[in-house]
Amino acid sequence: MSDSDSEQEQRLTLEDLEGSDAEMLSGEEDDPLDILTTQRVTINNEPALKRLKEQIALPTDIPWSETQSITSTQPVSVADPDDDLNREVAFYNQALEAAVLGREKIKKEGGVFERPGDYFAEMIKSDEHMAKIRQKLLDENASIQASERAKAQRELKKFGKKVQTEKRLEREKAKADALEKINALKKKRQGNDNSTNADDEFDVALESDDEEMKAYKTVGQNGNKGKKRSASSTPESRGKRLKKDQKFGFGGKKRHSKSNTADSSADVSGFNVKRNKSTSFKAGHKAAKAGAKKRLGKSRRQGGGGRK
Amino acid sequence: MATVFKQQKTKRDKAEGIVANDAEEKAIFKNKQRVLLLSSRGITFRHRHLLSDLGNLLPHTKKDAKLDSKSKLHIINELADLNNCNNCIFFEVRKRQDLYMWVSKTPNGPSMKFHIQNIHTMEELKMTGNCLKGSRHILSFDKNFESSPHWMLMKELFTQVFGIPKTSRRIKPFIDHVISFSIVDNRVWFRNYQITQKPVEHRSATDTTDLTLVEIGPRFVMNPIRTFDGSFGGQTAFENPEFVSPNVARAKVRNAKAGRYKDRMEALAKRDQKMKDAVLPDDPLSEKNVFA
What we know:
The complex is a heterodimer. By secondary structure, chain A is mainly alpha-helical. Chain A has helices at residues 2-13, 46-56, 84-109, 127-193, 211-221, 239-248, 262-266, 273-278, 285-291, 298-301, and one strand at 69-71.
C-alpha cells in the first residue's frame, strides 16, 4: 500500500491528473465512496422468491399436455462456455432427451405427435426462404468439391513435373556418361599411337564396337531414331575407307610409321616360310624366281589398285 | 370481446337463476395465457426481427405499438389489461445497442429483467429447420433450474409465458419443435429445434432414437439482472451479483485505453520528482569544500 501513499502525494502535485474518474470505475463490486469494501450486498430474498412462485404457479394436477414442459434428467454442465461445439452438443442432447420423453407422454395421453406427410399448412419460414437455404447448401457443397478437384489437379501437376524432371536428368546423365567414355577411348587411342597431335577437335568420332557408343550415336544424336546402316556397308566392302582412315585417321600417322617399334619387329606377317626357303641362293634359283610370284608394284601393294 | 360476452352471460345466468356449476368448472382448469409483445423506441433491425420471430413462434401473443417512455413502465400493466393479456414480454433498447428483456406477469405478478446477448434470428441461413406456424412445442428445461429459488421462479415464469396453452386460437395440431432453456455460465441459453424422424435406413450405429433435431432459430442468451416483486417495478427479490452492465463494460475498455496515457504521464512525473529528490549530500572531501 506504499504505492497508494506515493499516489496520494502525486495527486497533490499533479493537478492536471486529478479529477479523472478512472479510479472510481473499479467495477460493480466497489462502492466508490468506500474504498475498503470489496463486495456489495446483493439481494437474494429466498423466502420471497418461493412465495412468488407459489403465487403464480399453475395447479399441479393438470395433465401434462397443458404445459408440455420437461425437465432434463441430467443437469447441463459445460466446462468452457466459449467452446461452441461442446456447448451446442450439450444443448442438443438436452433437447433430444426432452423430445423423446415428450413423445412418450403424448402417446400415453393419447395425443398425436407426428405430422403426417400430406398435412400442408403455413410454416414459420416461407418457401422462398427455405429455397434460399437449400441454394446456399448446394453452393457450399459445389465450392468444396471444386476446391478439392483443384487441389487434386495441383498435386497431379506436381507429380507429373517431378517425373518429367527425373526423366530429363536421366537422359542428361546418360549423355554425360557417354561423352566421358568417348573421351576415355580417345585418350586410350592416343596413348597407344604416341601421337602428339593435339587436333582433337577435328577428330572424327571413333567407330567402335562399344554398344553404348552405338546407342549414343543412334539415340543421342538423332533423337530416338538412329541412322540405320545399310546391309551393303560391311567392313569388307569398306576397305578403301578403312585404309584411308588407317593412313589419314587422327591426322594421319606421318612420322614413325616405318620405324622399328616393338610391334613392327614382332610382326612376322611379311615372312612367308615357303618363299624364303625357295628364294635362297641355291640351284634352280632362276627357275624358282621365274616360277615365283612376281612382287607387285608399290601403289598396288599399298591397296591403291583397283581404283576406278 | 370475450370478457364482455362472459360478463353478459353471467348477468343473464344470474338473472335467469342459473347457478354456475362451480365444482365442475373448478375441476377443469383451463390454462389461459396471453402475452403482450412490445418494445421501446430506438429498436434496431436485429431486435425487431427477434421480436417478430417470438411473435411467430408463440401463437398466444399479441403485438402492440412501440412504447414511448422508458421510465414509466407501469403503464404497460394497463396496456396489457386493455389487450386481455396476463403476461408481457417487453424489449427495452438502450442506446440503440443494448437489448433488455422484461418478462412479467401483469398486473400483480413478479417480473424479471434480462440482458440479451448473442442474438441470431430465424432468418440466418445456417439455421435450416422449419416448423408449423403455431404448433404447440415441447419445453425443455435444464435440471439446473431446480437448484435455486430464483431459477425455480424463472422456470415457472417461462413455462407460462413461453408455453402455449391449449385454449389459444391460432394453434396447430401436431408437435413439431422443442424449445430448450439451459443454464451455462450463470446465463440462460435459448434454443429452438425442429423434431424430425429419421427413416430406418438413414440411422447410424450411434443413434439411440429415431428422432433428430434441426435448429430452426432464433437463438439468444439471457443474462438475468433482477427479479421484482411486482410487475415492472416493486421490491427487488433477486439481484444477480455477476451482472456487469454493458455500459460499465464499455466504459472500462475506454478507460483502460485512456489509463495507459494517464499512467505513462504519471510515471514520468514520478520520475522527475525522484530525480529532483535524489540529490547527493555534500561530500566534505569535494573540491568545493576543500578549496573553499
